[in-house]
């Protein structure tokens, strides 16, 4: 990810100009304002603006005239309480605005989060640069395993896999022989050559279709149809803190596709700088938490009483039992 | 809750006229279409229309050309999977439309669920009938306890209670002396007389402000300002199944205020008729489920290994420990 | 609207503390940050925070690395273009957060705008102060006229008036005898006494129901049901600029109820300080604009060609013709 | 657009099974339920389900116990009134669910309408068929003109074109020499060969990356990144009538890209079958309507008074003047 000199200069100009404000301000986040934070091979996240901080959440929760509570320890207690009990509206009172450069297939997943504001760079009116995502070779070597797992899962439902984001990885993590099934280094290199080759050829056709001073072309909005899904696009994305947490709960998760997770991971860092109390509560009560079904609770209660419980008499499906064991490895022990 | 003859007749006309359709149809729900289902003293819920059924969820999840899967057992398995893994979009593919009559203070809680369509009877243009909610005497007797609990909770945050729906009841359930603190029967009767008295007086002033053929009055939109919050209003409310489940998860909960819970309870019955597989999954994986924080999981794991764990060395707050014990009474046992 | 000394002090503390920021900053808006701007007899609007400015809209529209365009005149041109062609997403990139104190019946209209974030002061957990709205006497004198107009409109639809916000005023503005039908000064004074009397009595019952140290009471969440709709509530309300403009287009309009318009008028001033280019475009292309139907366009075209056009051969309904004449008084002239 | 025999059979099974319902039913729409309505070369729209009809809008607007009004003429009057005065909530009370097959670049525009429910066929778990969109040759010949116009527009803003959907076509309609600048028939044929060639090659690489029984491949979610934007995808899309009208106002417009307009045109036909009164009102008061700015109104008023008005003394920009003349060709006449 390297920007040309003109863009670098524009960013430096923005970073250099400061103002005095009465608004809630977060120095740790100011530090990286406007800077491109690299993601994948050519993508980035830039924090453009933000509204509010941890204290603003407390202030809104209490509909107060001044700041939140008098002490940080009180703020922490209330934020923990709010996260724990899923009182979402105070978190909606903070907002962040990002400039993101990302492959189109990632953008297609990302935009499914509808409770956000988006302004995308338009390939109807502008020409896209020859920039596309090519995965890392080591990462590609791990892919075969995942594919097998996906196929396996599909059979659960008789025909095709459900339109379900978490299926693949959920399986692959339980696939003990994963390591042995790595793609050969040569095969992985070939994959990269294939991706590179077809992506370049697609861009070449795109440029040809656009025409030039010598040769007439077709409209940009039409020519773009030959671009590949790994072409990079850009957008401004603005979201409130509650919906950002929801995005992160789904996308910073091990079941998310690697490429969008890479963006979510960078956003986790941004979160920690911006609202450290909320970030800590989020990790304790959401990311690190687990939801147990009525039957799973029953299983644990029986085990706590000292009873032996088997999968068969638990009422849980094989998948549920596996997920429960992943959280409580002690379960099988009795 | 009694409707006048004209309205009864309108409803009967609607119920009597049927048509042939190719759409997904649910006989158990058709049975009660348009009928007012009584709630509180004068309120109701009427199911006006619905779209989809359990099979339609599967059909959408699979983006299929025909129905869902071939067998109900497959539909059940997929629906359980979708609810369990919080794949919400297939549930958004079903929709229900209700006509609800409810006290204004309940309407004010209800409307906080923004992801729904609402058309409310307008007191700007129409005159409201003299109808207001008066609680049941036995119910009023239980109230004092809750108030004490709320005050107690408030002190956690130093000054005022947080804008937090679940506080009161969460506390009151742990208040062991509850029973002894019932309001005297006489005091409760006085409460009802007070509510009745002021509500009637407010409606009388409202009617006076409106004027009549003899005496000029002021605009309806202005006169309504003296109406009490227990006056009944009405609306059409349309929501998709995913957002209905979210509404029910919050409002069919013991922490919700009694009056809105009364509506949620009726809607739970509607849910069971409409989408029985989804209703069952919802009870297993949401209503009957519990979310454990990272530290709570640690506590349980230590106990499963046979270690003694006290509140003090658990890292949990008093409130968290109490909530964990409510789910796992065996916890304290060691 | 007078705040107690403690709140004044909290506000002063907030206003006194400033920080340095790299974010887009608007000095004209900073000036009134946190200050209560009075509305009605006891209400207010306080600007708590904001994100973005006119340049940020351009910056988002262009998905740019630096600021918007190089020159203000270019920014103005683009903003006019965006408003004119209803490109809404760039305006969603600015956000404002307000603390509002308002009568409950106004809050009930306001919350119908669902695309915003709200945190309301909770009468479930807190006791409301004895504060209620009483209109101005001169304003009350004008009310009778409006009511007549509303009744008249209702008959258009055979039975009751539609649930339609603009009906009343639309009519009243065309009601030429309005002036003569003012409420007598004495009658208006009586109206105020009635509103004051019943509101005070409702609060007295409310306080009685709550109980005190001597006498047991009922839960706050239950006691509040006797409060009148003119009681003041408070909330934090956060909205993006696009949705704020939509709110203003509906509520700063002459058809809106006077009380919510009073808030909209204050927000128009805030808008002009915050994003002056957008505010100007909004007045030119939305507030001052008019949408003509296909048939209304036909009428104007015929008149431009010099033809005489009567209501009868225009194809317009009486209401449409009246609205067209209101915009083009010259129409009838031929 | 041809479906295989299995899918045809599934659809026939659905169409053959009917039920009795008390719900509002629209025979004209029932007729085409589940049938694929062809769009572009391989796409389709299938109506899967619907809720409500014209009468249901009236019923909701009046929060009534029975049907809407007694007579169709009253329903028509109220629906016209509601559309004209932008009372949107009654239209939100109807809902439609579609199964759509569409090129990915169209899906990317479509999904910008956030107020809808979507379930897309997942290329993370399923393999996409070799189906991609290739435009019609005559259509391609018209493209060059549009591109030139876009470039021209861009210069208005100094650097790049704004992210503005309507720019291109707005310009091209005023470009009088359009006809002469058609692409040569040979050049157009070459464009099609290029699109076909690269699309096929992309799918071949995709299939290679997936591997087969002999050769290991990579995960589907990763392999899909080489697919072109003209590959066909599918989704279930559910939307309420108000938001469908908003979609159609933007996408059935001459400024929309041809390919999404093709879908909007089919949906206009669906609309007319489903809610004929609403469809007529929509054409009269939205599609055929025009919004005039404050200054444009001033221009017309002056002309109606017989004054001469030139672009220069109108206060309108060149673009605004051109747009006003497009609606009122008589304007220049004086």
TrEMBL record, chains A, B, C, D:
Q: Which Pfam families match?
A: Thy1
Query: What does it catalyze?
Result: dUMP + (6R)-5,10-methylene-5,6,7,8-tetrahydrofolate + NADPH + H(+) = dTMP + (6S)-5,6,7,8-tetrahydrofolate + NADP(+)
Q: Which residues bind FAD?
A: 89, 112-114, 120, 240-242, 246
EC number(s) of the enzyme? 2.1.1.148
User: Binding positions for dUMP?
Assistant: 109-112, 120-124, 224, 251
Q: Where along the chain is the active site annotated?
A: 251
Q: Which organism is it from?
A: Marinimicrococcus flavescens
The record's similarity note reads: Belongs to the thymidylate synthase ThyX family.
GO BP terms: namely: dTMP biosynthetic process; dTTP biosynthetic process; methylation
EC top class, as a word: transferase
Q: Summarize the subunit comment.
A: Homotetramer.
List the SUPFAM superfamilies hit by this protein, alphabetically. Thymidylate synthase-complementing protein Thy1 (SSF69796)
Q: Which InterPro entries match?
A: Thymidylate_synthase_ThyX, Thymidylate_synthase_ThyX_sf
Q: Write out the pathway annotation from the protein's UniProt entry.
A: Pyrimidine metabolism; dTTP biosynthesis
User: In the record, what terms sit under GO molecular function?
Assistant: flavin adenine dinucleotide binding; NADPH binding; thymidylate synthase (FAD) activity; thymidylate synthase activity
Q: What is this protein called?
A: Flavin-dependent thymidylate synthase
Cofactor mode of binding and number, as noted: Binds 4 FAD per tetramer. Each FAD binding site is formed by three monomers.
Cofactor dependency: FAD
What does the UniProt keyword field contain?
A: FAD, Flavoprotein, Methyltransferase, NADP, Nucleotide biosynthesis, Transferase
| Function recorded in the entry | Catalyzes the reductive methylation of 2'-deoxyuridine-5'-monophosphate (dUMP) to 2'-deoxythymidine-5'-monophosphate (dTMP) while utilizing 5,10-methylenetetrahydrofolate (mTHF) as the methyl donor, and NADPH and FADH(2) as the reductant.
């Amino acid at each position: 990810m390297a920007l040309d000199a003109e863009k670098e200069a524009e960013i430096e100009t923005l970073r250099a100009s400061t103002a005095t404000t009465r608004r809630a301000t977060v120095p740790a986040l100011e530090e990286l304002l406007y800077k491109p934070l690299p993601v994948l091979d050519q993508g980035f996240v830039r924090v453009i603006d933000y509204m509010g901080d941890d204290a603003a959440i407390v202030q809104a929760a209490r509909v107060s005239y001044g700041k939140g509570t008098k002490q940080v320890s009180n703020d922490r207690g209330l934020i923990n309480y709010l996260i724990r009990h899923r009182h979402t509206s105070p978190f909606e009172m903070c907002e962040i605005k990002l400039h993101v450069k990302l492959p189109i297939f990632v953008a297609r997943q990302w935009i499914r989060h509808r409770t956000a504001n988006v302004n995308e760079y338009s390939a109807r009116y502008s020409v896209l640069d020859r920039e596309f995502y090519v995965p890392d070779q080591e990462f590609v070597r791990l892919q075969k395993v995942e594919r097998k797992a996906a196929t396996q899962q599909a059979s659960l439902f008789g025909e095709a896999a459900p339109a379900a984001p978490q299926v693949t990885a959920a399986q692959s993590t339980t696939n003990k022989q994963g390591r042995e099934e790595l793609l050969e280094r040569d095969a992985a290199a070939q994959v990269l050559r294939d991706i590179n080759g077809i992506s370049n050829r697609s861009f070449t056709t795109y440029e040809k279709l656009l025409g030039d001073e010598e040769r007439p072309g077709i409209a940009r909005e039409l020519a773009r149809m030959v671009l590949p899904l790994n072409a990079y696009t850009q957008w401004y994305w603005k979201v409130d803190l509650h919906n950002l947490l929801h995005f992160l709960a789904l996308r910073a998760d091990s079941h998310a596709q690697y490429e969008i997770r890479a963006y979510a991971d960078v956003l986790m860092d941004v979160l920690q700088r911006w609202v450290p109390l909320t970030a800590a509560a989020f990790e304790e009560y959401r990311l690190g938490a687990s939801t147990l079904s009525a039957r799973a609770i029953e299983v644990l209660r029986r085990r706590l009483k000292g009873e032996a419980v088997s999968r068969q008499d638990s009422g849980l499906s094989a998948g549920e039992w596996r997920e429960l064991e992943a959280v409580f490895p002690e379960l099988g022990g009795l």
